[in-house]
Amino acid sequence: MSFPRSRIINDRDIEEYLSALEGGYLSEDGMEMSDTEDNEESIFYTNRNEPLQDVEDDDNLENEPTLHEEQVDVHDPPPIQETVASKAGENSACSTWVLDKRKLIWKKSTLQFSESNVEFEGSTDLGTEITALKTPYQCFNYFFTTELCNKIISETNLYATQLNPENRFNLSHYDLKKFLGILLYMSVQHFHSTRKYWSRRFGFEPIKQTMNVNTFEKIKKYIHFNDNDKYIPVNQPGHDRLYKVRPIIDSLNQTLSGVKKHQRLSIDEQMCATKVGHYLKQYLPNKPHKWGFKLYVLCSVFGFAYKFEIYSGQDISTRPEGEPDLGSTNNIVLRLTRDVPRMVNHIIFFDNFYTSVPLVIYLAKQGIHCLGTIQQNRIPNNKLPDKKR
To answer: End-to-end distance of the chain based on CA atoms, in angstroms?
Structure first.
């Protein structure tokens, strides 16, 4: 469902859109698959030695109790076959997965489940380095490391020199910490404009006593996170739309991923609200903050983010050897779960934007269980009832 840009979305359109989202007919990003994909030939592996048996008549299937996938012998090959042959110019380690031309078969049967199959075998011990953190300031310094601060200081001073070699501006570690503290205050205590925080009558005293407005605005003018001289222009190989903030993303992800993960994890979108005009800004009507930069986040059930990825419309990461290419949507899950320990029965939850048969199969092979809602046109040959039933 899409709306013309030339008119304003009215309340009825919004209600229909949210109803479609809630019903599972649309994803929040509008990236649902088309109905034409239902007719594509399915791919699945069964026994290597024996051909598939004829499927029972639908009338007979309806008399059996529940639905599950036809069971395969434990010694059978995986349902997805890796092909290492890559296109010219691509990384030879990147493999694509294809499904067997024989069709995926669904049969009704009694679903038997044992909790021992998902008993967590990993560790959630945080270690003394994290448990020793007692104050919010110590926690901030743990994730916003000294190395990251030094990187920001170096690139900021370099940028100021690039603009004007005679510029005497020099950002210190102490001034950077004060600047970051002011930004945190501003995110909680909202004023109409930045200069209002230094107003004589209505200013915010903690900020006024920390730094004068001229110093704050000078740091804001020069602050940088990466070297502009190394920026690769648009339409050139290796161009990164997030180059300006890439060191921040990589440093935070490295630190966050070092925290031991709980068994149950969740992957979903999150909005970083902003009013700035930027081509990467997204609109998600089903989120509390509807406009902003979209993040894909791997979280625990307590809300702690272990890894995040800012949506930029491109993937510049290098795919590890053996990791398949399951398409842009499923690859998000694969990238976010690269640091999740294998074969210890982690459970990952996600919505119908991510759920697909190849993804579920690949994660199961890695010893990672998953649970997600579905879009029926992504499930080949499914005999699930329609939405109304």
So the answer is: 23
Range 194-206 average pLDDT: 93
Residue type at 27 in one-letter notation: S
Q: Which residue has the tokens 């994890």?
A: 265
86-114 confidence digits (pLDDT tens): 433 444 344 555 555 356 777 777 777 78
Ordered DSSP codes for 131-200: HT--SHHHHHHHHS-HHHHHHHHHHHHHHHHHH-TT------HHHHHHHHHHHHHHHHS--SSGGGGG-T
Q: Where are the beta strands (DSSP E) in the chain?
A: 67-69, 80-83, 95-99, 106-108, 264-273, 282-283, 291-300, 305-310, 324-325, 346-350, 368-372
Residue 260 to residues 113, 182, 341: CA-CA distances in angstroms?
A: 28, 31, 10
Q: CB–CB of 337/343 below 8 Å?
A: no
With a CB cutoff of 8 Å and minimum separation 6, the contacts of 46 are 52, 70, 72, 76, 100, 102, 105
Q: What's the CA gap between 155 and 227, in Å, rounded?
A: 6
> How far apart, in whole angstroms, are the C-alpha atoms of residue 251 and residue 307?
11
Pairing state between β 80-83 and 95-99: antiparallel
DSSP structure class, residue 44: -
Query: Look-up: residue for tokens 């598939």?
Result: 52
pLDDT (0 to 100) of residue 41: 38
Tokens read off for 321: 């050897």
